[in-house]
Amino acid sequence: MPEKSERKVKPLQSVRGMNDILPREAEFWEGLEQMIFAVFKGYGYRPIRLPIVESTPLFHRAIGEVTDIVEKEMFSFEDRLSGDPLTLRPEGTAGCARAVIEHGLAHQAAHRLYYAGPMFRHERPQKDRYRQFHQIGVETFGLSGPDIDAEHLMMLASLWEDMGLNESLDLQLNSLGEPEERRRHRADLIAYLEKHIDKLDADARRRLHANPLRILDSKHPDVREICADAPRLMDYLGAESLAHFEGLRNILEVARIRYEVNPRLVRGLDYYNRTVFEWVTGRLGAQGTVCAGGRYDGLVTQLGGKPTPACGFALGVERLMSLVRLDGLIVQELPLDVYVAHQGEAAFSWALQVAGNLRKEGMSTVLHCGGGGFRAQMKKADASGAQFSIIIGDDEAATRTMQVKALRDANFGQRQLALPEAVKCLYAHIFETDGKEL
Ligand code: ATP
Ligand code: MG
Fold it and tell me: Same structural domain for residues 171 and 263?
C-alpha cells in the first residue's frame, strides 16, 4: 500500500449532469433572463421565489405516481434529524401551488406569478438534458377562461419575436379534457391497446393500466403505429371542454398565432386538464421541446386548497439559450468600460474617488488590485477587454487630473483631463451620446 500522501487523489469535479455556468455564459443568461422578466412584468406578472427542497409527498401528489419524474427522476433523501422525506424540486408548479395555498394567495385576487431557478432530475445527461437544469416558469391562479391560456401563449409568442425565434419555434396544442372525460376515453384506450398488446414495448405494457395516456407519446415506432388509430381523447370531450378549446383557438386566430393541434400531445405530468401545449423546434435534435405548459384546474384542491383554476408554463433555459445561439438575435455582450491603473499612496486614494465617480454614472470600472508597475498594469487593462484606461501617478494625484487612454480606438490617443471633463468625455464615448445628459 502506498503511503496516504502518495495515493492518487481524484481531482474534485462537478457532479455529473450538473454544470458550472462560467462568466461569459452567465452574462448571456442574465441578459436573456432580464429580457424575459421585463416582458412578464409588462403583462402584470410578479416574481415569486420558492425553496429548492420540498417534501417528497408534494411531488407524488402533484405530479403523479406513474410518471417519469416520480418513478425514476427525483433526487430524494431523508432529513438527517427528523427522517422526513425530502426532494430537490424537479419542476416548479407543485411548489408554487403549495406556496399559494400555504399563504392564502389563492383567496385574493387573481394571481399572475413568475419564477426562475434550478430544477433537478436524475436523467441520463446529454446535450440539453441535464440533471440540474434551469426553468423560467409562469403560473396564474384564479382564472378559468381560455383568455388566460391565450395570454400565456401570446406572451410567449411576443418573446420569441423579440428574440428572433418565431420562425424556429412551432406551437403544438391539445386538450386533455376533464378527468371524467379522460376516464371514459381511458377505458376504451386500454381495451384498444390490449387488442394490440403484442406490438407494445415493455414501457407501454407497464403503463397500460397505470397511465395509458402516456403511451400515446411513446417514441417506439411500433407503438406509434398502433397509436395512430387509437381512440382520440378529443372525441370524448364534453361541451364545456370543447367550448374552452374553441375559445382558445379563436383568440389565437385573432392574435395571428400559428399553431397545430397535436392529438398525441399528453405531457409527462398528471396534473394537467384541458389546454396543454408545447413550443417545439427541429433545430436542437432530440431535445426539441423548449417550453411546455397548460391548465391544471384540479391541482390546488388535490394539494388540499380550495378549488382554484390555474394554468402555467415552464421554459427550459438551456434549450432556449442553445436556440438563441443558433437562430436568435445576438444578445450583445457588455464589455468592461474602464480600467484604472495607479501607483503610489496618493494616487490610490485619488483613483478610488475617480472609479467611484465613473461607477455612479453607470460605467463599469475595474480598479487595479495587486500593485506592480504601470507596464504590467496596462497589460492587465488590455487583457480586461476595457474600452478605456485611466492612469494615475503622483503627478496626476497632485493636480487632481488623470491620463485617459482609449484601448481600442487609435484616433482617441491619450488625454490629460480633470475629473468632470474625464467623466463627460468617457460617458460620451461609451454611451455614444454627446454627453449633454450629464
Ligand atoms: P422532455 O420530454 O424533454 O423530457 P419534459 O416533458 O420532461 O421534457 P417539462 O417537465 O415539461 O419537460 O419541463 C419544461 C421544460 O423544461 C422542457 O420543455 C425543457 O425545455 C426543460 N427540461 C425538462 N427536463 C430537462 C432536462 N433534464 N434538462 C434540460 N432541460 C429540461
Ligand atoms: Mg422529461
Answer: yes
289 is written with which cell numbers? 421541446
**Residue 135 and residue 176: Cα distance in Å, rounded?**
24
The domain total for the chain is 2
Give 317 Cα–ligand 2 centroid separation in angstroms: 14
Closest-CA residue, ligand 1 atom 15, reads: 316
Q: What is the average pLDDT across 364-385? A: 96
**CA dist., res. 341 & res. 338, Å (int):** 10
Report helix, strand or coil for 323: helix
pLDDT tens track for 137-167 = 999 999 999 999 999 999 999 999 999 999 9
Q: How far apart are CA 362 and CA 407, in angstroms?
A: 19
Any atom of ligand 1 within 6 Å of the Cβ of 168: no
With the most atoms of ligand 1 within 8 angstroms of its CB, the residue from 289, 295, 324 to mutate is: 289
- 274 Cβ below 6 A of ligand 1: no
Cα–chain-centroid distance for residue 104?
26
What confidence tens digit (pLDDT) does each residue in 322-340 have? 999 998 886 666 789 999 9
Contacts of residue 4, defined as CB under 8 A and 6 or more positions apart, other chains included, come to none
DSSP letters spanning 272-294: -EEEEEEEE-STTTT--EEEEEE
Measured by CA distance, the residue closest to atom 11 of ligand 1 is: 292
268 CA to centre of ligand 1 in angstroms: 9
Say whether both 277 and 351 belong to one domain. no
Least confident of 7-16, 147-156, 240-249, 362-371: 7-16
The bound ligand whose nearest atom lies closest to the alpha carbon of 219 is: 1
The CATH number covering residue 355 comes to 3.40.50.800
Instruction: Quote the CA–CA distance of 261 and 249 in Å, as a whole number.
Output: 10
The mean pLDDT of the chain is: 92
Q: Are 146 and 23 in contact (CB under 8 A)?
A: no
Give the residue numbers spanning the domain of 267. 23-177+237-327
Please answer whether residues 78 and 86 qualify as being in contact, where contact means their C-beta atoms are separated by less than 8 angstroms.
yes
| Helix (H) or strand (E) run with residue 137 in it | strand 132-141
Are residues 271 and 93 in contact, defined by beta-carbon separation less than 8 angstroms? yes
Find residue 87's DSSP bridge partners.
Answer: 54, 76
Cβ-count burial 104-128 (b if 16+ within 10 Å, e if not): ebbeeeebbbbbbbebbbebeeeeb
